[in-house]
User: Fold this.
Amino acid sequence: MGEEKAEFLKGTLDMLILKVVALGPIHGYAIAQRIQQISREFFQLQQGSLYPALHRLEDRGWLQAEWKPTDTGREAKFYSLTRGGRRQLQAEVVNWERLTEAVALILRTAE
Amino acid sequence: MRWYRRFFRRGLTERQLDAELRFHLEQQTADYVAAGMTPEEARRRARLEFGGLDQVKEECRDVGAARFMETLLQDVRYGLRMLAKSPGFTAAVVITLALGIGANTAIFSLANALLFKDLPVKDPGQLVILTWAARKQPETLMFTGSSNSTDPDSGRELMNVFPYSIFKGIRGRTRRLTDLFVFAPLGRVNLNDRGSGHSGIAVTVSGNYFWALGIHAAAGRLLLESDDQADAPCTAAISYRFWQTEFEGDPSLPGRTVTLNATPCTIVGVTPKDFQGLQYLGFISAPDVTLPIVQGEQIGRWAWGGKLPLLSADNRWGLQIMARLKPGASEQKAQLETNSIFQQMLPPEWTSMAKEAGLPEIVLLPGNNGPNFMAQFFAKPVTILMVVVTLLLMIACANVASLFLARGAARGKEFTVRLALGARRSRLIRQLVTESVLLVSLGGAAGFLLAWWVSRYLLAFLPSSSFMNLGLNVNPDMRVFGFAAGISLFSGIVFGLGPAAQTTRIELSAALKESTLWSGRAPGKSRLWSRKLLVTFQLAVSLLLVVVAGLLVRTLRNLKSADLGFDPRNVLVFGLTPSANGYTGEKAALLYNHLLDRLNAIPGVVSATASSDILISDVAVSGWNDIEVEGSPSSGKRMSTSTNYIAPRFFETMGIPLLAGRGPQTGDTASRPKVAVINETFARKYFPDTSPVGRRFRWQGEKDWIEVVGIAGDIKFYSVRDEPPPITYIPFLQSPWTFDMTFEVRTARSSAPVVRGIYSAVRALDPDLPVVEMRTQAEQIDSSLSTERLSAKLAGLFGALGLTLACVGLFGIMAYNVSRRTGEIGVRMALGATQGGILWLILKQSFSLVLVGLSAGCLLALASTRFIASVLYGVAATNPVTLGMGMLLLFLVAMLAAWIPARRATKVDPMVALRYE
Assistant:
């Protein structure tokens, strides 16, 4: 495991998934690819662990799923954001920003 | 609930999950192949990066369940926190529920032990009892020890005794039944061990009995097939209770040879503690001694000294048959098969009657709780108690519901805030239901423990004489536990859901604006309405409980103070069973006469006598017999009388007045002219016109006339309830057979030295003769009233509990009402209302509530008490005094409960009240 690659913080995976799905209906494989690409392979994502998270978010009512053909014509399960999911994403982003701000503040001033 | 749906649509979601994950892996593989890997390597890489496929699937499947558990845990945690925050409320609810559920569970565990509990044997569910249904039985056959009941399907009489030959026939030919065994009661046996006599109740069984039941010895061994052979030495097993009470659990007893009915016999072992026999003969006695059936035939003696030829005589039907259904055999087919074997084996007496009455038919009854004749004895009182405790539970539930409503009111703001913050109503209801389930679990658990603790004391109410030697096991089993859990759940739903629905039906704006000062149209109004209804209901039901308790208590009092016609004080009663030791005829008469002489000579004895029938024993030993009166034309009307064979000084000893003529004398022996004393009822019924003294009558079918020499006062004979029957007293030496007599000894004052004197007098005459059941006549009567006493005490207890709970409910609503109206009261007082006026203002409300509740209760009581009319004595079910007293009691207690909060209302300080807002 490369030393610059971080494990996911607890809860951040959910936020990242919501963020990725917010861009439009997308299937699980593409979500995994997208997260790794965008983070420039920074996050070490054990791909399998994506699916329980997807199912959990669906179960909470933040994601909804639909079986549709992909570009290649294969059937795949596409996830999209519900209204509740959009609210949740906003709340989590706000929380995250507050957290990082607070951490940054401490790091800056505690010197 | 998603998780729930998932459960049912498992197949579908499973396929979708597979497809989704496969898609991912194939896409990844394809991408790697496109990047230049070999398909083999690409697939391997994809799998590696994906991680454990099965683990991922498992986690996906668990998502719903996990969320369910998570919210449940959240609810439980939150619920516990809320309950801990209001310990008063929690304690009130838990205690109320514990009382209601505990009372129900305790009574149910009693009902369970009496009516439902399986026999403590291997696979009781396989057991069946063989009975037969017939319209009529041939008169040449003798049926012994059958407990007759009515076949619910055909209305024919069901009997459960067979001759040995038919048992052998069925056992040899059946293919659907297995382990057929027989047993028959043997009455009392005398057991002499190293010089001390013990009297025990015996049962004879076929050699395979214990093996078929799958029972193992508590000590030594139990009877085997080899013990039941014609040439086998005498062997017997004794019960655990008998071993403990009579032999202090002597470990050397198993294997020892004792004398059983004056015959050497080896005690081979002890039956297990919880095995009380199969409850035979309608007498509810657990057998103390179990003998192989061959030995029963050899050494068994019936109370009149006769042998019981159960094995050899085909015209004597006296064996009860039980069996196991073979695994997989249907009860119906087994019944058909057994019936055809049975009908082929019937003796000619039956076949000649077949045209008019048809052949008897086998009916198989479930045998899982034995031939349960306790049911007949106890079904009614137990049912009444079950209804009573159910009513109690309803009152308790109403209380808890009322508490919940009050709390709902108090939490209105909390819920309003949560609803306003976007919580779903279903989530709030779930929260409330979780809280009630928590409370109910606590209450139910407490109630179950309470019942466990109480049920041991319930037994203390039950009679313990050996006639009613119940050997009950009231320890809660799974069925009792299930019952407690069931009613807890039921009550949780009843009081939890309704208030929950109401509490969450909140109009946001109205509730947030709610002011406690002018709450005219606030949602508290409808909640108050529900609570008022609940209180009315509680008062009505508790009135019913109080009235039922009152009726049962009066019944018991009436029975206790009933005029018996004799004087039961200072009379000792005990039995002897010489017939079991072979005393008959002349020899027995000599024994009795010697003993009576010795008894009368004991210092402190006023007089001593003997009789075949004990007074107030619920059993007719000598039975009812038909008579014909000399000189009176047989009008076709049947004349019958109960009989008691008595020794001289009987009337004197029992304190029965002799109204005319003389009593039995020592000279009334078998060789002298036959005489009788009759009671008033006999005289009135069968000698309506003339003085009976000097007139003669005889038993139906016999030729000797019996002269009436005296008339005795009427007495209660078999039970306190029954009116005095016609009684014929015959001098015991003139009885056609020798009875095992009961002795009655009137003492001057203290009976203790007399008791010792009696024991030594009996021992001096025959050390092999045990004294049976030494007691006082008063104890005898008391034990015959034990069911009534149990019902009265329990109903009284439950009535008081119900009343208390209802009053707590009333108190609660009144206190709530006062606190709700504090502002209003303050204003009124500021405007000059007097304390008396305020008091009346509050009391007026409860006054009308109580009146409505009591009127409803009065109607309820009038409509329903007639269902217990058959267990009442000396008081009508609609007895106005009991009803009136009950209403007065309830009224007073209820007004007291209302008075306390009303008093508090008058103490309201207007300034404080107005500032309270």
Remarks:
- The first strand of chain B starts at residue 127 and ends at 134.
